[in-house]
Amino acid sequence: MKPLSLRRSDGLVVGLDVGTTRVRTLIARPFTDGWVALGHSTVEMRGGMKKATVIDLDIVKEAITESVRSAARQAGVTVDSVWVGVTGSHIKSEIVSVSLDLSPNGSVIMTDHLQELSDLAKAKATFSDDRSILHVLPLGFSLDSVTGVRRPVGLTARRLGSNVHVVTVFSPFLRNLERAVHEAHLNVAGMVLQPLCAGLAVLSESERSLGCVLIDVGGGTTDVAVFHDGGLVYSFALPVGGAFVTKDLAIGLRTSLQDAERLKVRWGCAKTVLAGSDPVEVSDLGSGRSRTVPRGAIASIIQARMSEIFEMVRQRLKKEQQIPSVLISAVLTGGGALLEGTVALSEEILEMPCRLGTPFLPPGAPKELRSPFYATVVGLVLHGIQFAGEFDRQPAKPGVFSRIWRKIRSLLGT
Prior knowledge:
Strand order of the largest sheet: 3-2-1-6-13
Distance between the termini: 41 Å
Shape: globular
Strand content: 25-35%
Number of helices: 12
Low-confidence stretches: 1-9, 389-414
Helix content: 25-40%
Number of strands: 20
């Protein structure tokens, strides 16, 4: 198989979202003040992942290869480096407090001081030898007695402190995902927490500041991220998602998984009261004979599983001490959020206003990207634009992308 290649001077950023049921790729070209989508693709994952974990390397490798090649053909470019999303119930979050004593007369804070804080946070975090640090995210800084400082570099203080969000992952799972990417003849530019990316793509500055829960209902997992005071303060993943809804329908309606998925997409509803009693054709498992069931029967199965997911989210939010006590709203994204009635059901269970989250995109972006399906991969591109290194960016019209660029910098605290 001929490797795909990317010359660094091409100035491309590629996001790769390897999900339990699908692989999505987005290729973008960054400009001075934003970015343009060049190519994208979605490829079905046929059994290579389970609950966001690689279980068949060959299947995952082939799905990644197909997705990246398809997006590259559409963009008319070649690719060898991708930003990869990471999730799974093995993700752990911890907030640690660290500080540095500087000169008694005060010292100008340099980037080296921030690196020292980061190193202190890594050393203070509690995790076992089989785990790796994925992110070290400062949640604001304190200068002497002043808290809530966002950008301390260049300021003067005697003492510099920070609360730092440390995200760790189970090392073997991370290495398996990285190996699958390498087997597809691709380099890993970086690995990024998926709900961090989704939040980057769909949340407003006010939502991140006032306190918001992002709930990304994927195929094999439901990723949850809590944002407060402009940053990501906690995250976790539940080992249940939209694929479980499909399986519930297959069992409850005695039909195939393929027909259950069709029923979910075409007729699915997360609230029975909204579904009505219109007859829906179902194929019997084995015989293939058709019969009809009321749409409400489909909705009752879906509602039971979706209610369980949101109840699990609610209980976890109440349990964790590190999560702010006041959260203003929730934003739902991912394919599972598209089911009719899902937002209304989540509002009932979470007892807060909820909305559907779609990615903020630059003008002229393909309309299919304006879907919760693409939240993570759009966020990977935004993250890559910030951190991928030096690019040969071309100038864009002044102000066209300024809101998006401010959004990136605000979320990442830069």
